[in-house]
Amino acid sequence: MLRSLATLLLLSTAASAETADGEALKRMTWDQIVEQARGGTVNWFMWGGSDTINAYVSGYVADRLKADYDITLNRVPISDAADVVNQVLSEKEAGVTDAGSVDLIWINGENFRSMKQADLAFCGYTGLLPNDSLINWDNPAIANDFGVPVEGCEVPWNTVQFAFAHDSAKVPAPPQDMASLIAWIKAHPGRFTYPAPPDFTGSAFLRHVFIHAAGGPDRLLGPFDPATFDATAARTWAILNEIEPFLWRGGATYPTTVTQLNELFANGEIDFSFNYDPAQFGLAVQAGTWPETTRSFGLTDGTIGNTNYTLIPFNSPNKAAAMVVQNLLLSGEAQLEKAKPEVWGAAPAIEISRTPPEIQEGFAAIKTHPSVVPAAELAKAALPELQADWLIAIEKGWAANVGN
Amino acid sequence: MTDRTRIALLLAPALLVLAGLFLTGLGLTLLRSFRYLPGLGLTEPDLAAYAAVLTAPGFLRSLALSLWIATASTVIAAVLALAAALLLRQTFPGRTLIAFLVQLNLTIPHIVGAIGILYLVSQSGSFARLAHAAGLISAPAEFPILTHDPYAIGIILLYVWKELPFITLILLANLQTLGEDHEAVARSLGASRWQAFRHVLLPMVLPGLATASALVFAFAFGAYEVPLVLGAHAPKALPVLAWQAWTDTDLASRSEAMAMAVVIAVVGLALLALVARGLRLGGQDAR
Amino acid sequence: MRADRMRTLAALALAGFLILPILPLAIWSLAHGWRFPDLVPQTWTLKAWSLAVDARSGVLHSLAVTAGIALATTLLAALIGLPAGRALGLYRFRGKGLVTLLLLAPAFLPGIAIVFGLHGVFLRLGLVGTVPGVILAHLIPVLPYMVLVMAAVFSRFDPEFEAQARSLGATPWQTFSRVTLPAVLPGLMTAALFAFLVSWSQYLLTLAIGGGRVQTLPLLLFSFSSAGRNDLTSAIALLYILPGLLVLLVTARQVTGRSLALVGGLRP
Fold this sequence. Notes:
The structure holds 3 protein chains of 3 kinds. Chain B has helices at residues 3-33, 48-55, 57-89, 95-107, 110-121, 126-133, 153-178, 181-188, 193-222, 225-230, 238-246, 252-282. By secondary structure, chain B is mostly helical. Chain C starts with a helix and ends with a helix.
């Protein structure tokens, strides 16, 4: 027992602060960085709720890192990335500048904005990654994370676009746009609901209603505008309050997480679920959680798309190794592996046309899970993500005007 | 070595650890709730965090909810535990098995029980399915709302399930040390069963029951993971609200989290004071 | 007899109540596709269990970490709590009431009341995100139980035996190991069992002080539960119950009852 305790204690203090100095790294060549990274450990904090994603990271990614670079990947499963932002913030406040506990975070949206605003991100190094050339930084949906310029502070990992799921055996002809969805909700009392913000997915659903109320996204792009917000918000709350009595449990309560929404859908309590990452639908069917007859769709007036990223905190003691991880994640092979529906089914964040022919063939050969609406079809009607200020205002307004 | 030195040496490690961890944690929480943090340039303590917390509509509802959860759980668990202890004091077939189940329950972590309760009584849980099979309901929505509900029924159910065995075991152990003599004497003097219980047995087990109940109340009031699994989106149990404020990326709300933590601490200290008074009334039997 | 039947009914109700929440966990852990209104799963499978014991899922690692932390916390608590229990159990001194109250306090103050402040201290000491940090944090709720049980044990201990051993030429260590320890060992075991269980079940302190890096079973459990993987969640939940069950079976079963009597008495 004593020996295992000793090992435990040793393990916990093994983290060394060898590559905490990001400025020094920026002056190195990639080969030198890889040399520095050897033998390092990367603590990667990421949402841990999918065993298939976990297996991809702890299996494929970790194995390649170990074999090719002698880097140990420690996947740290979390329920909410906001907790990690808070952790890095606490560290900064306490003066922990080179021995932080987080080396890499799976992140986007308001959490990225918080980190960038508080100077919690390691920035300006992404050009050093060899696989940076696979990223199309000219694409505004890649170069901006929820409207916040990325500016070399994070590296794209996946692209996703919001989609709805339904059971084709129960609802053969689902509504095709927001207006008919609202009409459908009123015609089918108790069969629809959405998670209460600040749930990530519930918040995204609200933005679709908000954009619908605004008559389209055009006036909502760009920085927060109080006048436009007030006018649109009033219409949004009116719509949401109007449908509230027709929601699940008469709108008296809302699910708190997308998980609860998924569970309600799985058990046939409601007729629709939705997700920012349609690949989740396929995974849920594979896991036996959802019926085989699950199908998914976008809206003809568009659904919001975004990119999610990995970010290195300013005080990570293992920046070199974390950079090697990011570079590996970007590689054509790793992006292809996670695009396979049985692995994850995630859409790539790189330009496939810039990868070698055999990778391109691999992508071409992928058959999407029948429950997952193909990314190309969703992309026909895509909406841009609103800037984080809009998002926060919508969430706060909902709590005050609808969900009280 | 004098006795005084010896006592001081014996107590030193425990007191040092408690002072270093517990009192420091509590003290820093207190300082920060008054927004006093010289390290961050906050040198003028004020009550802004308390004012913000008290005027926020969610706080008082959360406080009320947590008090309701703790009170209901404690009362129900204590009454049922008293009955269970009286039952288990007798001999009957299967007693050993039930006594084992009671003890096993003590080892099961709260979060496991909470998930079990969720799967059991949610609108699509096992009971709802049985009700459907029996033709009582035709859809999950018709089943009573017992989890994620505003009255925290699921949470209370979990605490009763988890704390009933805890109190039962304490009572059983107390009853064992007391023996049956007193009751027998009372009965032989003509007391009815109820009178013997009410006037002889109950007063004797009351100190143990009260202490155990206070521990249960403190736990049910301050636990975080149980309302996290079983609670509704609003109002949130106070610990959940405090944690949410603490993890808010807006640093200003941290003082509010600390103020809520202080409110929770005050309730805990009040319980401790009650227990301390009860113990002193019970007399000291230390040598 | 009516009283007999009432008693049987009450006993059955109690047993049912205790066992019921565990049943859906057992079924879910073997289920593939178990949706309303199915009473039993469409397909039975060991998939969740094979995932749970797969090294990549990290479940077994978490099991080891959780057990290691609980054992270390128990050991530390015993080292600190035994002397304190002796002082409280054997001696009468000024300020004893206050000391007892202070040692008792953490049992009544929920972890959330102190954890924010503690996090600030541990952060500056570099203890956040480390196993030693989590062990120290667990000591807070564990110590009261250890100290009070040991105080009760020592209040029934006769120091005369120690004096006799020493007068016969025993060294202090010999006196402790051959006289004192055997006398208090049963009580110490019950206190240790309690300490282990309190640490074993901790959620909040581990979450805050471990900062996610120290991934104990309850954290992993919540991570899967909040993702809606009922099958995996249930398998992990059952794995999480197992060690407690084993400890209970191995230690004398009356042990818990006795230690609870000591806790329940809570008399200094």
